[in-house]
Amino acid sequence: MAPGWPAVLREGDVVLRPLRRSDARAWLDVRARNADWLAPWEATAPVPPRGPAPTFGQYVRMLQRQARRGDSLPFAVEYRGELVGQLTVSAITRGSAMSGSIGYWVSREVAGRGIMPTAVALTVDHCFGPVGLHRLEVAIRPENAASLRVVAKLGLREEGVRERFLHIQGGWRDHRTFAVTVEEVPDGLMARWRARRGGADTPPPVR
Known about the structure:
By secondary structure, the protein is an alpha+beta fold. 29% of the residues lie in helices and 31% in strands. It has a single domain, classed as 3-Layer(aba) Sandwich (Aminopeptidase), CATH 3.40.630.30. Strands 1-2-3-4-5-6-8-7 form an 8-stranded mixed beta sheet, with helices on both faces.
């Protein structure tokens, strides 16, 4: 197995664990309820693939293969025992870079409860610990106010705009990029998030 995988990460009511084929009913249900909420932010292929879309089981098996190779960390996100989202560390690069990219989604029904900042903080600390990475980034469409609030709450450093970075809903879309390195959070990102949750106000991300 790759370093740091499989893993189960916990903080309060939030649990991150490997996505399983047995999650099919819950995953498909939450995705169906949130189709309109998620569609503007999810990457699409500029040339639609030929043939039928993969089944959920095939999708999970693909993620599991990538995780075993150390290419990604595909987590299901649970809140109070229910599957409410997904977080994946993808594009993991070792060698001289030791980096990865975090992508996530969460059900609109539980958005704003601190679930995704907690999930991101848990993941960053896990990646800087057992996984052994040095840098992580999050790319967000400028219009995605909910996702921008996640990185603002965590105080991630903004690096700039990547023009026409990902293909979404028929076009190439700009993304704002936020990053964190292990040197920036010597006590862990979760420690920073706990401290910020204890305060009255959340300062903007460091630029």
